[in-house]
Amino acid sequence: MGWVGLLIVFPFLMAYAASSDLLTMLIPNWISLALVAAFAAVVGVSGLSWTEIGWHVGAAMLTLTITFALFAFGVIGGGDAKLAAATTLWIGIGNMMDYLLVASVLGGGLTILLLMVRAHPLPSLLRSLPFARHLHNKETGVPYGIALAAAGLAVVPQTELWSNVCGF
């Protein structure tokens, strides 16, 4: 039953977080809370030891501490900080650096792409879309939740949790 969480719930919540950030520049708190709740359900049938679960929680707490510091300095949004921590809960300490590296590379690429797009006028076809106008605005930040979600989807299949639950 844990495979439902890994193969359906986790990807759905990641996709929802990314699309919400793209369209509204917000990641609702319920997404991060749902990720934590779904992790609790999946880990119950995962076969992970209490020590391993503790390392997952520790990784999430470390990530939350670092990302909230970044939020306090205005580097990332609060939703990004919470999403990164909730995702790291699933990833665990063993793959945390992989996740953060992939998220950083994807986020950097997304930032460069947005800067390039924002250097040109918005095509007339897209001007009628409020999210496109907002995203094109040079005063708008970067929807980093897209990179965080994509990185989570890329790294979670490499985790011990994945191996235990899915068997591959």
From TrEMBL:
<dbReference type="GO" id="GO:0004190">
    <property type="term" value="F:aspartic-type endopeptidase activity"/>
</dbReference>
<dbReference type="InterPro" id="IPR000045">
    <property type="entry name" value="Prepilin_IV_endopep_pep"/>
</dbReference>
<keyword id="KW-0472">Membrane</keyword>
<dbReference type="GO" id="GO:0005886">
    <property type="term" value="C:plasma membrane"/>
</dbReference>
<keyword id="KW-1003">Cell membrane</keyword>
<keyword id="KW-0812">Transmembrane</keyword>
<protein>
    <submittedName>
        <fullName>Type 4 prepilin peptidase 1</fullName>
    </submittedName>
</protein>
<feature type="transmembrane region" description="Helical">
    <location>
        <begin position="99"/>
        <end position="117"/>
    </location>
</feature>
<keyword id="KW-1133">Transmembrane helix</keyword>
<feature type="transmembrane region" description="Helical">
    <location>
        <begin position="27"/>
        <end position="50"/>
    </location>
</feature>
<dbReference type="Pfam" id="PF01478">
    <property type="entry name" value="Peptidase_A24"/>
</dbReference>
<feature type="transmembrane region" description="Helical">
    <location>
        <begin position="57"/>
        <end position="79"/>
    </location>
</feature>
<dbReference type="InterPro" id="IPR052218">
    <property type="entry name" value="Preflagellin_Peptidase"/>
</dbReference>
<feature type="domain" description="Prepilin type IV endopeptidase peptidase">
    <location>
        <begin position="8"/>
        <end position="112"/>
    </location>
</feature>
